[in-house]
């Protein structure tokens, strides 16, 4: 089977797409290509790894500093679409796998010309995301509606997001593929958690043994409660330390807060395959998402699974899918994503530390998600 994954991201740094491509190429029966975009200052490249071929397109229009930014973005979009469609057609895939809405219309065109199957992999609730304008949200939904009949299978990352699509846009074969990491062993995530800790955070930041360490993983951007976390861990009500590990536009604000408060720390992002191991160095993991979009409200972020597989108790926003997972699997506790509730949850955890009751999490691991994805492709092949 010849498969092409289409995305507007840089695939070598997109862990979900890489994991999906590897899952499809692992048995050697599929030719798996990925078509993405190179960084703004990067050169076009084609690289092969583990049975995959990854094409990163260098979009020249993004470098046109002599034209206004809004015009530049339009030309860049046109150039990207033309080049992606041309390359996609030349690869003659039997299945086109589109990641998120930006690549969807290109996927529809390629699949119709070649009579290929089309998979739509929505990493979020695309038309209800944080940070996009009302007209972009409307345009996104219009693209999804126009493409809906051409889509043979829908994949997404949480039960509520899948339900939303099937309710709003109509019935469609669909599969939940969680954005979870690999389990290193077939054993329980908790079995070796304590013995695996080296005291890395405590040594690096000189954190006393009697102080708890809370870890924030992920993008350092608005909508993730970072301002509230800085406020809480700067207050006299809390005695614990917090480590922010990631990258994003709020890095400078965290760095400034860390300079004024010895209990706040900023750690650089680490490669995806190291996240679980480094997370074990914390006492608690914070999965704090603000209720500022429906996509956020329905999310199941990868950090939740990374904490769980590290054996670290979780404090998570009290949203439907997250709360269900946390409580059903004994991963930790939930709180309303507001300042007072966050403060109370941290103070409560300091006074009454809890130990998660989770045992075997194999069914949440990427190994299980990979098998679900492989089943999707097997069903498409059977349908002809």
Describe the structure.
The protein has 384 residues and is of the alpha/beta class. It folds into two domains: 2-180 and 365-383, Rossmann fold (3-Layer(aba) Sandwich); 193-360, 3-Layer(aba) Sandwich (Rossmann fold). It is 41% helix and 17% strand. It contains 15 helices and 14 strands. The strands form two sheets. An eight-stranded mixed sheet has the order 3-4-2-1-5-6-7-8, with helices on both faces. It has a six-stranded parallel sheet with strand order 11-10-9-12-13-14, sandwiched between helices. β13, α13 and β14 form a beta-alpha-beta unit. α2 runs parallel beside α3 (104-114). It is globular, with a radius of gyration of 22 Å. The protein starts with a strand and ends with a helix. Mean pLDDT is 91; it is low at 185-193.
Looking at the structure, the CATH topology of the largest domain is Rossmann fold
Widest beta sheet: strand line-up: 3-4-2-1-5-6-7-8
Number of strands: 14
Q: What can be said about the biggest beta sheet?
A: 8 strands, mixed
């Amino acid at each position: 089977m010849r498969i092409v994954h289409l995305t507007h991201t840089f695939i070598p740094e997109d862990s979900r797409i890489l994991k999906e491509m590897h899952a499809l190429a692992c048995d050697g029966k599929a030719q798996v290509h990925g078509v993405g975009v190179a960084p703004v200052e990067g050169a076009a490249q084609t690289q092969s790894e583990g049975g995959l071929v990854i094409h990163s397109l260098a979009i020249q229009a993004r470098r046109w500093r002599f034209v206004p930014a809004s015009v530049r973005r339009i030309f860049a979009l046109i150039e990207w679409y033309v080049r992606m469609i041309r390359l996609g057609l030349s690869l003659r895939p039997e299945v086109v796998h589109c990641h998120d809405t930006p690549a969807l219309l290109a996927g529809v065109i390629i699949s119709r010309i070649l009579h290929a199957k089309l998979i739509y992999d929505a990493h979020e609730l695309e038309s209800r995301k944080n940070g996009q304008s009302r007209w972009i949200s409307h345009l996104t939904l219009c693209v999804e509606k126009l493409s809906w009949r051409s889509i043979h299978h829908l994949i997404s990352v949480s039960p509520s997001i899948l339900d939303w699509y099937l309710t709003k846009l109509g019935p469609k074969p669909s599969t939940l593929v969680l954005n979870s990491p690999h389990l290193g062993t077939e054993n329980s995530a908790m079995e070796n958690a304590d013995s695996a800790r080296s005291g890395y955070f405590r040594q690096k930041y000189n954190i006393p043994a009697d102080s708890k360490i809370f870890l924030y993983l992920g993008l350092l951007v608005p909508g993730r409660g970072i301002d509230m976390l800085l406020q809480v861990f700067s207050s006299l009500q809390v005695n614990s330390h917090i480590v922010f590990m990631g990258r994003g536009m709020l890095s400078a604000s965290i760095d400034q807060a860390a300079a004024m408060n010895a209990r706040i720390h900023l750690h650089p992002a680490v490669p995806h395959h190291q996240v679980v191991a480094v997370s074990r160095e914390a006492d608690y993991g914070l999965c704090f998402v603000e209720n500022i979009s429906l996509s956020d409200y329905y999310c199941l972020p990868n950090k939740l699974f990374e904490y769980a597989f590290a054996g670290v108790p979780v404090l998570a926003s009290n949203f439907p899918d997250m709360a269900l997972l946390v409580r059903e699997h004994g991963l930790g506790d939930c709180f309303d994503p507001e300042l007072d509730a966050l403060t109370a949850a941290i103070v409560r955890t300091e006074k009454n530390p809890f130990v998660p009751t989770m045992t075997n999490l194999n069914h949440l691991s990427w190994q299980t998600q990979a098998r679900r994805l492989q089943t999707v492709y097997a069903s498409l092949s059977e349908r002809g």
